[in-house]
Write a structure and sequence with these properties.
heterodimer, A: alpha/beta, Rossmann fold, two-stranded parallel sheet, B: mainly alpha, ABC transporter involved in vitamin B12 uptake, BtuC, two-stranded antiparallel sheet, 2 strands, 4% strand, globular, transmembrane transporter activity (chain B), membrane (chain B), Branched-chain amino acid ABC transporter permease (chain B), BCAA_transport_permease (chain B)
């Protein structure tokens, strides 16, 4: 090829790129709403990231297939692979923020934290569903951040409540020893202030077992520490490869599984890989597991069976898949509310922020969504961006998770003061943190 | 005084007070150390033969294990999958020699080092494309690897030996011994050592560099496969294994980049050192020191012996 040939080739490539650039923001198309999904189907955390990514994507795709999107506007879905890496997450954010995203779902506490100050500036709300900064539940201080239906501090208080029930009262925790094994990152460190407060108030001893991301599959030292310290209960905030390894190690040292309790993130595979010894392992949850819900049936029929999903058919209905579905249901409800509030089909981040503040999942609404019996009602307001609902404890029986408790409510009297003071601290430490100026919609 | 007591006295009181836990920590450290040594050996073999620091050694561990489990998932019987994985590692070695090393021969070492970064990302992407990114369970039973725990009462307590750890220690030791014999006492081994001493001198006596590179990369692939099977059986086969493989770096710093015994002894020192450090001294600073303690140990040794424990002392006239 001569020099002219190369020029033509270069021009053609440049032309294709330019055409692509014009075509790319399907996001900005008139009758669609752009929903970027920050996912991780690769890397050390893919074991947790894949089912969630599948659930989130499949629910939105189901709405596109069944209803033509939301309120007559298609949903433009675009995944950005973060690998659960904060740097990559921020690159994803920069890549999508110019395409009029209706909101960001970081799916990482580490990515959420630097996005909190950006949200108001860029007018893009952040939905960190049951993760992220616990204090961001306060809508008056954090009008652009939402973390329903529970914070990590709520989660911890519910675990403590459950342990108290097992022991015959919270006062029985006095003199006990509780171990905390966690991912030594923003996520795992988040509940520590609350845990220390509980230890002080209830008189138990707290033992910390941090696990670095580099050692998620190499936890023998931590579990040897557990063997030495003999905690009465072990609490876990783990993610990715940390969870299955921790369960295996607990089995290895014969730790009583009935006293090993996790926040809501372990999957079926995490427990299954430890064999029969994992029976009795427990975790919190707030939604249904399995496929016996109309919404899941619709996803199977309209997305999975048509080959529009990446999920293996037998993985539909698993804990983290359904978690992803729940997350996308919140996204869709917020868009729907925004459309109602503004009368527009294609809405903006500003509109959807208002939509999030007006989420009101009544039993009737959940039934309309095909989620009757799937989860509890949830109402967000301008000041409460969380809902602080009840969860329940589920137990691994060797084949699946089964519900083993009634509703567990967060200990608001313990959590709320800490949330208030943490939010105040955050605003003070971040000089110039703006006072809320966003108006509150009536529905809220 | 309290701090000094906590650092210099209390850990030893604990060791004496619960010797079974000390034995357990030593055993856990030895098993980790043997596996670190196995990974480090892959680095050393390639560095000795080609002067290339193979950044892709970690992902080769994942890729080998993923290929084995992935093939089995696709219906290939376990031992056939194992044989096919060995074949895949051979093809990879030939591919690396043809596509990466041969075109870059005579280029500065840093170019070859960067090329192994490229190889890393290729293997990550290729592995995920073929087998998916989700973690998989190692086919422990199908490969007749033992499961379960042997609890041995001793020293007034109990020491637990995971059967898979015992197998890992035996297999890794046999592999290390086999490789040592192969490289010390065979014709190819002598050729490898000649290449390691001087590429030009080796070429002048008729040793084929290309052939040696293929053999060495293949040996590193086999070592990666063994390490992948053992780590995978202890936890799961996932891309998280790649970060564990980076633990071999302080082993190399400690043992020296060119020494096979250094990789083995360095692996054991790092493995045992980090377990004892985390268990006895970690609580003093809130735990979680294992991730950096290995580097600290390696750096402390470097202060005394800059070439590592067994590395060659390089003296250059300037």
């Amino acid at each position: 090829m001569g020099r002219t040939g190369y020029r033509y080739l270069a021009a053609a490539v440049a032309g294709c790129l330019a055409a692509g650039a014009v075509a790319l923001p399907a996001a900005a198309a008139e009758d669609s709403n752009f929903v970027p999904l920050f996912t991780y189907r690769t890397g050390p955390f893919s074991g947790s990231g894949i089912p969630i990514a599948n659930g989130m994507r499949d629910y939105l795709e189901m709405l596109n297939q069944r209803d033509g999107g939301i309120g007559g506007a298609k949903i433009a879905i675009e995944e950005c692979e973060t690998g659960y890496d904060t740097k990559k997450g921020l690159e994803c954010y920069e890549a999508v923020k110019g395409k009029n995203p209706v909101m960001i779902n970081p799916w990482s506490t580490g990515i959420t934290l630097p996005l909190i100050p950006k949200a108001k500036v860029d007018k893009i709300p952040v939905l960190s569903m049951a993760y992220g900064l616990s204090a961001s539940a306060l809508g008056d201080t954090f009008p652009w951040v939402f973390n329903p239906p529970n914070t990590y501090w709520d989660g911890l208080s519910m675990i403590i409540r459950y342990i108290g029930e097992q022991e015959g009262g919270l006062d029985k925790l006095k003199g006990k020893k509780l171990g905390y094994i966690y991912l030594d990152a923003g996520f795992g460190k988040e509940p520590i202030p609350m845990f220390e407060q509980f230890a002080k108030d209830l008189g138990f001893e707290l033992k910390l077992y941090p696990v670095a991301a580099t050692d998620m599959q190499n936890q023998s030292s931590q579990w040897l520490g557990v063997r030495r310290d003999r905690p009465d209960y072990m609490v876990m905030y783990g993610w990715g490869a940390l969870n299955p390894t921790a369960i295996k190690e607990a089995v290895r040292i014969n730790y009583p599984m009935a006293k090993f309790i996790s926040i809501w993130w372990p999957s079926e595979d995490d427990a299954k890989s430890a064999g029969d010894g994992a029976k009795g392992f427990k975790e919190l949850n707030w939604h249904g597991v399995g496929t016996d819900f109309p919404v899941i049936k619709d996803i199977q029929k309209l997305v999975v069976d048509k080959g529009l999903s990446q999920v293996a058919k037998d993985k539909v209905g698993e804990v983290l898949y359904n978690r992803g579905v729940y997350n996308s249901m919140l996204i869709a409800e917020a868009i729907r509310n925004a459309q109602k509030l503004t009368g527009k089909k294609a809405v903006t981040g500003e509109d959807v922020r208002r939509g999030l503040e007006t989420i009101d999942l009544t039993p009737a609404r959940l039934k309309e969504l095909g989620m009757e019996g799937f989860t509890d009602p949830l109402k967000l307001t301008c000041s409460d961006h969380n809902g602080h609902g009840a969860t329940f404890m589920q137990e691994w029986n060797g084949e699946k998770y089964v519900k083993v408790s009634g509703p567990l409510k967060p200990m608001t009297d313990k959590v709320e003061p800490l949330v208030q003071s943490a939010a105040k601290d955050y605003a003070e430490k971040n000089t110039g943190w703006p006072k809320r100026t966003e108006v509150c919609d009536k529905a809220s | 005084m309290t701090i000094l007591y906590a650092i210099f006295v209390d850990p030893f009181v604990q060791m004496a007070g619960a010797p079974d836990l000390l034995v357990q920590a030593l055993w856990d450290g030895l098993v980790s150390g043997v596996l670190y040594a196995l990974i480090a050996l892959g680095f050393v073999l390639i560095f000795k033969a080609s002067g290339v620091f193979n950044f892709a050694q970690g992902i080769m561990v994942v890729f080998a294990a993923l290929t084995l489990v992935g093939l089995h998932e696709k219906g290939v019987p376990a031992f056939l999958a194992l044989a096919l994985t060995v074949a895949v590692m051979f093809v990879l070695a030939v591919g690396v020699e043809r596509v990466v090393l041969r075109p870059l021969v005579n280029q500065p070492d840093i170019i070859l080092f960067i090329a192994t970064f490229g190889l890393t990302y290729f293997l990550i992407g290729f592995g995920e494309l073929i087998f998916g990114g989700n973690p998989k369970a190692m086919i422990t039973d199908q490969l007749f690897l033992p499961r379960g725990v042997v609890d041995v009462p001793m020293l007034g307590g109990m020491v637990s030996f995971q059967k898979i750890d015992i197998a890992a220690a035996i297999i890794a030791s046999l592999m290390v011994a086999g490789l040592a014999v192969f490289f010390q006492n065979t014709r190819i081994g002598r050729a490898l050592r000649a290449v390691a001493d001087s590429h030009k001198a080796a070429l002048s006596v008729g040793i084929s560099l290309n052939q040696i590179w293929v053999i060495v990369w293949f040996a590193a692939g086999l070592v990666a496969l063994a390490a992948g099977i053992m780590w995978g059986a202890r936890s799961e086969v996932s891309f998280a294994l790649e970060i564990i493989a980076l633990k071999a770096l302080p082993v190399l710093v400690l043992g020296g980049l060119t020494s096979v015994p250094g990789a083995i002894i360095g692996g054991l020192i790092i493995g045992v050192g980090e377990k004892l450090g985390e268990f006895y001294w970690g609580p003093l600073v809130g735990g979680g020191i294992e991730s950096w303690l290995a580097y600290f140990i390696a750096l402390a040794v470097l202060l005394v012996r800059p070439q590592g424990l067994f590395g060659e002392k390089i003296i250059e006239r300037i």
